[in-house]
Write a structure and sequence with these properties.
- The chain is mainly beta and 111 residues long.
């Protein structure tokens, strides 16, 4: 199984930016970022294939950018124009997910 270590979260004001990183023990054709807000189910944020093509959830289109560095087994999520509703724990995994989840990284958007 692939293992994931997410980092880069924190507290940011609305309109601010954060860059999340996910270090994986291996990297596969399709990787993704997911998030889970309190009391809600985990949802897909964005996915990316090995060639770089990507897809985004409707709520983050135009604000978030997913990227990957295959040589470093790392996936990134650049988050701009953050909103309070982006507050969640963010995880990475393959797409669709098939490995154990990491600890995630907390993102809190609040003034």
């Amino acid at each position: 199984q692939v293992q994931f270590v997410e980092s880069g979260g924190g507290l940011v004001q609305p309109g601010g930016s954060l860059r999340l990183s996910c270090a994986a023990s291996g990297i596969y054709y399709s990787m993704a970022w997911y998030r889970q807000a309190p009391g809600k189910q985990r949802e897909l944020v964005a996915s990316i294939r090995s060639g770089g093509s990507s897809n985004y959830g409707d709520s983050v289109k135009g604000r978030f950018t997913i990227s990957r560095d295959n040589a470093k087994n790392t996936v990134y999520l650049q988050m701009n124009s953050l909103k309070p509703e982006d507050t969640a724990v963010y995880y990475c995994n393959r797409y669709p997910p098939r490995d154990s989840w990491g600890q995630g990284t907390q993102v809190t958007v609040s003034s």
